[in-house]
């Protein structure tokens, strides 16, 4: 283990610029999101506006291009274990990273038919890899961090430098180093700061959110903040330069200042029932989006009723949640979402194996209230990709 922490001393990263704080006091104007595109996640096959990577339960990953329509580009079939994360390079839409539960992260070049151009894994202990539960890439596409499941009495955060990858170094170990004293259970989420490439936030089922300064030479010195959510952390991200959001496995949203003793705002599952017809037990939280694309940050939530699957965007208004968009046309329980900021598209994927793309109505048709519309037909698909934690 000493080799891992000692090798972290080779990290050499610099501070970046800071981002501006977002105004959380804006008036919330209610609108609607309606379906813009929909495609079944499957193996079936214009310059794209953006691209989507969707992981399947058979360990493959399908890449779609989005322009005037949604079309399949390529299927990546090199993975041999459940996929725990899919991310495009922060600096190139032609490079896709996938992390798998068997402890391996690969980079594929979509210009070369999805060829694996780099591999990152931990083989420091007799070739035994640690099972990954999460990963992230720094904003400058230089550093990769991988969070492991609790294994051998420890939970690790491992680091690799993208410039020194396995394909170039043959069988040499390319692991920079790791931390293993800051979490006591599975590291479920990692999030690099959006502009400071040396700052990393981590979350775990042990209830802790930790913030690290990776320029420091030891784990003790690197751990700058440890926040106790008193729950099991599912996802987290940066809300402003010095504040975080996190969602838990009990469908709770917490907002934190990085040096706060407790969350400055907490919204439980009962808060998701914003209309009189909502049953809190049928409501669920998908993801929080710290973006101003729809006017201010929002939380995507859903509920299952006898009439169908509801989906809506909720804005945080001081001490309450308020609907800012009703999403019209959703037909599945949604399990993940992503925002393409340039186009203002919201991408959702769910238990029916269907990708939906939602746009504000004024971007797709005139003389209509704010909504999102679809152009692609429905279809039954494969199950959503494997997750190591329940929703």
TrEMBL record:
Matching Pfam families: WD40
UniProt keyword Repeat present: yes
Record SUPFAM superfamilies: WD40 repeat-like
InterPro entries: WD40/YVTN_repeat-like_dom_sf, WD40_repeat_dom_sf, WD40_rpt, WDR89
Biased composition (Basic residues): 382-391
Keywords for this protein: Repeat, WD repeat
WD repeat feature ranges: 180-214
Region (Disordered): 369-391
PANTHER family xref list: WD REPEAT-CONTAINING PROTEIN 89
Protein name: WD repeat-containing protein 89
Organism the protein comes from: Lasius niger (Black garden ant)
